[in-house]
Prior knowledge:
alpha+beta; two-stranded antiparallel sheet
Amino acid sequence: MGEYGTAGAAMKTIIALVLLLLLALGAYVFSVRISMLDEDMVYAYYQDNINATRGFDAKKVCAMYDKSFRAIDISQGPTGEVRLSMNRKQACDATRESFEMLAKVVKASRVEPEFKYTIETVTISPDRKQATVKI
């Protein structure tokens, strides 16, 4: 039994190590796959954003922004193109202030604003880690 007991224990150790390696590989593949964007994820993100906006939930909207978040808004005005760029903190501050103001207006007027986006294009980067969305 001594010979088979040692061989059996070694075999169990090898099987455990192989299983552990397979689990680690599976977790790695899953994390890589889950970090890859697709259009459905982008549309779901915008729908979640609309839902939080309807509830004037600035904390939830801000929590949706990545730490390296950068917003660029380009609009046409009477004097031409106006470009506004904000980092995460600036965007969170602006969102909170806007929601506070909107909540007051809604309370006073008793008219709920309708929030919706029309997504014109979604471009996913080749590495599938970034999306550019034209609204």
